[in-house]
């Protein structure tokens, strides 16, 4: 991919976000955790960049990252059930239209199998997920108004820079943490932008 193409990648799908996932992972689940990721290759063409970034940094966080590529929605249940039988598992759900479409099933299975999981968007947490560390979408939408303004004044869309997200949300669901037997450190609670009790 050319440098120009990389710069113009949609901001919410840039590899930098995977670094934030990693940073959110270790304090919650500890060293030696196995991190399974749920990408759908057909609907998340950018997943490769995220996955490579996670694999590169995994050893520094004492996490063994393993990919569970799902070819269709019917494989979700089998994949999560199999993973739940492993030692010290943790689930990282990548941003993807298919994982969002099957949000309720993924959240339900993670809770049922007591899997600590990090989700890509806040709505997963409000639906019963444990936590998310995600781009603040309302902030992006507000900032997009300046693009509309510039285009209405004659600016060419190809001349507009792609902005990188500057605001992220850490959202925790303490009710789910308690249900799966996960103790949330006070330092993490202090850093959270939103805590659901």
What is the level-2 CATH architecture name? Answer: 3-Layer(aba) Sandwich
| Tally of separate helices | 10
The major β-sheet equals: 7 strands, mixed
Beta-strand percentage range: 15-25%
Basic shape: globular
Can you count the beta strands?
7
Question: Quick check: average pLDDT?
Answer: 77
Which stretches are poorly predicted, pLDDT < 50 over at least 5 residues?
A: 1-25
CATH homologous superfamily annotation: Response regulator
Question: Under CATH, the topology is which?
Answer: Rossmann fold
Share of helical residues: 40-55%
| Lateral arrangement of strands in the main beta sheet | 2-1-3-4-5-6-7
- If you compute it from the alpha carbons, what radius of gyration comes out, rounded to the nearest whole angstrom? 17 Å
- Helix/strand order, N-terminal first: HHEHEHEHHEHEHEHHE
- The N- and C-terminal alpha carbons lie at a distance of 44 Å
Give the CATH level 1 class.
Alpha Beta
How many distinct domains?
A: 1
Based on secondary structure, the structural category is alpha/beta
Could you provide a short overview of the structure?
With 197 residues, this protein is of the alpha/beta class.
Question: What are the key terms here?
Answer:
Rossmann fold; 7-stranded mixed β-sheet; alpha/beta; disordered N terminus; single chain; 197 residues
Descriptive account of the structure:
This protein has 197 residues and is an alpha/beta fold. It has one domain (3-196): Rossmann fold (3-Layer(aba) Sandwich). 44% of the residues lie in helices and 17% in strands. The chain has ten helices and seven strands. It has helices at residues 3-7, 16-29, 47-57, 76-84, 97-101, 103-112, 122-126, 137-152, 174-179, 186-191; strands at residues 33-38, 63-67, 89-93, 117-119, 131-135, 168-173, 194-196. Strands 2-1-3-4-5-6-7 form a seven-stranded mixed beta sheet. Helix 4 (76-84) runs parallel beside helix 6. The protein is globular and about 60 Å long.
């Amino acid at each position: 991919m050319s440098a120009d193409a990389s710069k113009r990648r949609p901001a919410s799908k840039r590899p930098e976000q995977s670094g934030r996932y990693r940073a959110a992972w270790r304090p919650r689940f500890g060293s030696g955790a196995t991190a399974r990721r749920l990408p759908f290759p057909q609907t998340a063409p950018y997943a490769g960049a995220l996955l490579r970034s996670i694999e590169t940094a995994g050893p520094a966080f004492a996490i063994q990252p393993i990919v569970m590529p799902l070819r269709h929605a019917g494989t979700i249940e089998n994949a999560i059930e199999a993973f739940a039988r492993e030692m010290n598992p943790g689930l990282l759900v990548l941003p993807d239209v298919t994982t969002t479409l099957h949000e309720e099933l993924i959240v339900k299975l993670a809770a049922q199998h007591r899997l600590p999981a990090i989700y890509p968007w806040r709505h997963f947490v409000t639906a019963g997920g444990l936590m998310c560390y995600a781009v603040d979408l309302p902030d992006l939408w507000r900032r997009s108004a300046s693009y509309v303004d510039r285009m209405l004044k004659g600016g060419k869309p190809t001349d507009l820079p792609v902005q990188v997200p500057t605001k992220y949300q850490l959202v925790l669901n303490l009710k789910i943490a308690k249900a799966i037997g996960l103790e949330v450190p006070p330092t993490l609670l202090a850093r959270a932008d939103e805590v659901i009790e």
